Batch of 2 targets.
Target 1
Amino acid sequence: MTKDQETELLDRFSLAVFLEAVRCLDENVSTAREIDIAMRAGAGLPVGPLERADRIGLDKVLARLEQLEAERGERFHPPDRLRALVAAGRTGVEAGRGFLDY
Amino acid sequence: MYVFKAAVLGAGTMGAEIAQVISLSGLPVVLKDVDQAQLDRGMAHIRDIYARRVQRGRISEREAEDRIALVTPQTDYRGFADVDLVLEAVPEKLALKQAVLAEVEGQVAKTALLATNTSALPVTEVGAKLQKPQRLVGMHFFFPASVMKLVEVIAGEQTDEESVDSAVEFVEGIRRIAVRVRECPGFLVNRVLMAGLAEVFRAERDLGLGPKEIDALIAASGLAPMGPYALADALGLDIAQEVSETLKEAYGERFDLGGRISGLIADGKRGAKSGEGFYTYTG
């Protein structure tokens, strides 16, 4: 496996999980905090998908999604909520706020 | 509403595991099944879970005996008049769950809370045959319930706020983590997880990689405790297929597994429980 393949695989897995978590948030299935708790306690993820994106930086996540959308299709289309957070400067842990507050 | 006594309907593995969790918290629980042999197997399973806790020094033998004594196995509705919460854990068949709940509704107080343990069926439909569907909540325990801490508490369309609050309080009382989830296909955890699984299957095709190297990479990356192929094997490939079909129908192609596991299932490879899936299991 080449380094590029590794990166693509891990990004596609983690971003597919992240995007579905955001859809759940958009549909009011649960709150951001509870979605992350559920994915940790129910699926054993070490960090919830929303906090993980906040840690990476939402501007970086957005850029990567735009790239994957171009390369792999519409399912990676960045959610409006993500664009709005980035536009508002709520880019995650470093900014003190993202999907969650820090 | 405080639960002083609970009842679990269905003494299969899940029902027994849930009864064990309830008894461990010190609450009396009736374990009911229509089949005495199933009830015996359920009680044996509960004793096994306690025996392992004793072995690991988590609980004394005496305490384990006391907790086991809190579980009352029975095939009838004796003592259901003072049950505050009934949780059904019968097989995942809609008509069966509806019938079981409609029957028990006539045996408990009007104030008793009703719960359905389902990982897939809509709570609204499960409650369709009830006189008071507003008191039915979904409680999705994860397998094995004696180990897994999360319970998704699901409100159906008719479930009232008070019932959801009582359910959350109960789940926390038996030392589990409750997350409130609005009803949707797959609920929360399985939906989000299956989206990741389907994408990995697509990446396997696009990038020409093998399941074992993908699993090793994902496990080593720290993104998830195990790779998606090992996870699918653990879940049962037939179950994974079924869940993904439901999700695909509800949300579209992003949940398509691309026939990745239907071939294995056709060959009788259903994952860890059948001895073979993506991996081979012995013993």
Target 2
Amino acid sequence: MTNFVDYLLGGFSNGAVIALMALAIVLVWRSTRMVNFAQVGQAMFTTYVALTIQQSTGSWILALVVAMAAGLVLGIVVFFLVIRPVKNSDSTGAIIATFGVLIALQAGAGMIWGGDPQGFLTPVDNSGIEFAGRIWPISLYDVLVLVVTAALVIGLTLLFTKTNLGLSMRAAAFNPEVARLSGVRVNRMLITGWAIAGATGAVGGVLIAPVSTISPNSFDILLVFAFTAAVIGGLDSLIGAVTFGIGTGLVISLVSGYSDSGNAPIVALILLALNLLLKPDGVFGHHGARSV
Amino acid sequence: MLHTEDLSVSYGAVQALKSMNLTVPRGEVTAVIGANGAGKSTLMRTLAGLVRPQTGQVLLDGVSITGKKPEDIVRMGVALVPEGRSTIPELSLEENLRLGGLWRDKAGRLESQQKVFDLFPILAERKNMRADTLSGGERQQLAIGRALMSDPRCLLLDEPSLGLAPLIVTQILELVSTLAKETNIAILLVEQNAVTALRVATTGVVLNLGEVVKSGPAQEISSDEELRHAYLGY
């Protein structure tokens, strides 16, 4: 039982990062109805940018902020690279193009920063907290990860539900024609969606980097987990992405704890397959919202 | 006043509108009627900027809005209530309304919202409900309300009677025609249901295969038996 609790607790911060990546995937889905497989590549790239900032200034906060800004910009760049040329013809083409962007980003990062895994310093202690006579599998850094994730999720929720920009973005996602007829500049909203997704993914990258080390391919596995969480959550639901992101983190932690961490991706894929068989619209999805 | 000059629209080889001249004066309802495929919806979508005309012009109070984007046209004062599902079911009623005039300042928006609530009191009662919990008639009122939130000079209504009970349609349209008179808005109403449309309209325009075959006072059109048989099928 102690093991079970420990494994569960140990999965939360990893789950939070998966939730952020899933959120990024959902934000892109909501704006352009497609999956951006380059999302983790963008996060990897911006994490390298953050690493460079951290190494030269020593400031973690600054690194995080710069990574977010870089994520915004990269999101817009990828939108224009991928969506604009192929959008009018076929969205399948655009989805495949995002794989191209992923490969290009990985190659580019390898050329700039090299292929060897690099460590990323944590701003606070990353060893288990000692409390009530034992060491718990949660560190101060895990708490920071959870706090930053929660802040971002709350911020995004407020943006979408309380602001005019958020309303415009939701309208553009749900019904572009009615949105345009209401005066919403839909294309600008789509770009904004990609930009916010880029920044969200960037935060996820910076948060996971100290735990996983960073190399051009080190986030690939995150794509599997985040995609699973996003799809099970319904692809267009922010709550779904966060819930199942954290859920996936817990499952991975349990699977890794009781068997081997190499089994985690297989379990994720089994969950994904089960979901598609049993509830193809996702748990929080709007029925018929998916056009694949 | 909304005015078109020699407006032509083609979809490939099919000419949907053939050099159409149309005037929609302020303060009254102009009804465009005609059978399915007469070009009614194409006309509306072209006026709102969703379809680009091949030739001709659309003028709003003398200013050309031809070829502009829909999001700019609505800001200039022409609001379209499109056919069918033109509310967003995932948003609340209040959000659907707010969407209609997001670019305006808050005071102007609140003023328009109050006008909409005065016109359709049921919407004020259901303000916080999701749009998909509303009845068909309420949803149509909401769609018209959303368009009014842009404080339009010209309101385009595309088949508001679709899927609604005749009594509800008549009620909504009478409110709209009163609104046109009181606030001096130009209203263009496109309908397959000619009887209802001509009852509230001042002027009637009969469309067939993309051409205006007859226009004149609504009463004259509705009593023209020959016209009815030939183009309106009743």
